[in-house]
């Protein structure tokens, strides 16, 4: 008797116009009011962020919610004293980890949500993932993989990385960026706003949070209630024909 496959139905209906309202009203807000974000709301938004799709489900993200007044003041300074940081009710440093994948691969096998871990899942996280994501001392294994891919790729499609520390940084950032967008949309759905900041002194932020060498700051997110003059200019988007191509 064939084993029944796992089935997870989608919701019967979702109000697309309400979702569109969330997406369309999300703006990079530069000035916030003094209204605090309730802790249950913030936690709900972070939980939604961690539902984002991510590479091999290895969940490379970390969220540092900076609460300590002294650290918050230093973070505002590290963010170049931007209004979006100085007026924010919450400051969240969103970090990508490039080494947590090993532990998360092991955790996937020990915390699998079914009584039995499928064989293909066991093989992937115990053998395939270490092959794909391992770089080796001084990038030695990455160089070997790059050579293998270069030769094999002459005959069939193959993954072209990650082969280096820089590749791993890009790999992790892709997934963390998806989670960041979930977080911003979650805040908007709850009636709050945000501003993703790239303008900051990463050395100071890393030092403030005592981040390990294998982690890097993707963005600092200021969040709070939108001030009346919190959006500085109307939205500008170029014509979609410049970006959308049918081939």
Identify the notable features of this structure and list them briefly.
single chain, alpha+beta, 247 residues, 9 helices, 4 strands
Structural account:
The chain has 247 residues and is an alpha+beta fold. The protein has helices at residues 16-25, 39-49, 69-78, 83-86, 100-110, 119-133, 140-152, 165-189, 202-209, and strands spanning 61-66, 90-97, 193-197, 215-224. Strands 1-2-4-3 form a four-stranded antiparallel beta sheet, sandwiched between helices. Helix 2 (39-49) crosses helix 8 (165-189) and helix 5 packs antiparallel against helix 6 (119-133). It is globular, with a radius of gyration of 21 Å.
Strand arrangement, major sheet: 1-2-4-3
First-to-last CA distance: 44 Å
Helix content: 40-55%
Structural class of the secondary structure composition? alpha+beta
Q: What is the CA-atom radius of gyration, in angstroms?
A: 21 Å
Mean pLDDT: 96
Counted beta strands: 4
Strand content: 5-15%
Q: Spans of 5+ residues with little confidence (pLDDT < 50)? A: none
Summarize, please.
The chain is built from 9 helices and 4 strands; from the N terminus they run H-H-E-H-H-E-H-H-H-H-E-H-E. With 247 residues, the protein is α+β, with helices and mostly antiparallel strands.
What topology does this entry show?
Elements: H1 16-25, H2 39-49, E1 61-66, H3 69-78, H4 83-86, E2 90-97, H5 100-110, H6 119-133, H7 140-152, H8 165-189, E3 193-197, H9 202-209, E4 215-224
Antiparallel strand pairs: 1-2, 2-4, 3-4
Helix pairs in contact: 2-8, 3-9, 5-6
